[in-house]
């Protein structure tokens, strides 16, 4: 089953939000307008707006309030991708040239900043200080995650704690905030708000771990970028961390990272083969499953409705996804 089928009953509302996202990032400046539109038009699952809408189904669901939150969360995610591509010097995103590869790093950074600013401007239409504080805190953590990613590139002296903190900031907190802010915008009970945040956090951690696994196991066509791109760009993910427990693997990786400017996909292929055969993938998936189980436990705290079943279905899909 495709992911979109799980939340198909939200199709009309998501279509309205999609139009609003595209309208919000329009600019009088032609470069900003084209650069901002490019990534949005390349597609994406729009999973954060989905979580916003589902969170809103536990309270007084009003599409206009949901739209304000959903558009802002999707734009924050989009802006972070633009910045990520600069950090990683990525040439492709979803199979299309990145903004930094079509223009340059400066245009990409200003485009990301512009999209961030538009997200905050849009969120201002929701008159709820509690929601604004949560969004601001989430953006601070997201930026800290980006800084940590820059700091830790090509650094093999990392541990599990630093990796988990990084993916928490880079991915999980934004998904948690999406669930939580949907509940807040619909005036849900505080207990519902807390349970949705927990669900989003655990699902987000699992989602990113599986993303890191797929970077080694999925095809270039499925990924929209070459397999092993994270490792080539110096990003130490969970399968690599587990593999580095072998001193021989770590020594070889250190040797390759010393000539990071010259690295090619061919150079890291032997390491990718090792990662795929030494049990690191399986151990990473076990870690993902532990987070998913905690997500299911969080759902037990929510009242029964269609949204709850949909959240459970999304978690199941994430646990089995192949791309």
């Amino acid at each position: 089953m495709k992911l979109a089928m799980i939340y198909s009953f939200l199709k009309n509302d998501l279509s309205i939000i999609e139009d609003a996202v595209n309208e919000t990032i329009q600019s009088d400046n032609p470069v900003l307008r084209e650069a901002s539109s490019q990534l949005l038009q390349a597609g994406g699952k729009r999973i954060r707006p989905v979580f916003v809408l589902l969170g809103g189904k536990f309270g007084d669901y009003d599409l206009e309030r949901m739209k304000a939150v959903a558009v802002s969360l999707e734009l924050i995610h989009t802006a972070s991708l633009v910045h990520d591509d600069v950090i990683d010097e990525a040439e492709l995103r979803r199979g299309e040239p990145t903004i930094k590869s079509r223009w340059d790093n400066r245009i990409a950074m200003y485009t990301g900043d512009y999209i961030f600013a538009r997200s905050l401007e849009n969120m201002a239409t929701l008159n709820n200080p509690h929601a604004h504080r949560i969004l601001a805190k989430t953006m601070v953590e997201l930026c800290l995650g980006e800084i940590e990613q820059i700091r830790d590139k090509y650094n093999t002296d990392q541990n599990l704690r630093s990796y988990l903190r990084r993916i928490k900031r880079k991915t999980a907190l934004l998904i948690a905030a999406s669930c939580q802010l949907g509940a807040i915008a619909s005036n849900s009970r505080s207990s519902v708000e807390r349970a949705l945040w927990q669900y989003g956090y655990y699902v987000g951690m699992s989602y990113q771990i599986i993303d890191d696994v797929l970077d080694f196991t999925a095809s270039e066509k499925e990924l929209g970028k070459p397999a092993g791109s994270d490792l080539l760009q110096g990003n130490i993910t969970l399968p690599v961390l587990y593999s580095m427990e072998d001193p021989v693997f770590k020594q070889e990786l250190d040797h390759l990272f010393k000539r990071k400017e010259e690295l090619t996909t061919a150079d890291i292929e032997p390491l990718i083969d090792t990662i795929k055969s030494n049990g690191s993938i399986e151990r990473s998936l076990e870690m993902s499953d532990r987070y998913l189980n905690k997500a299911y436990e969080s759902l037990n705290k929510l009242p029964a409705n269609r949204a709850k079943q949909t959240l459970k279905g999304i978690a199941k899909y994430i646990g089995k996804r192949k791309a």
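The mean pLDDT is 90. The longest helix spans residues 190-217.
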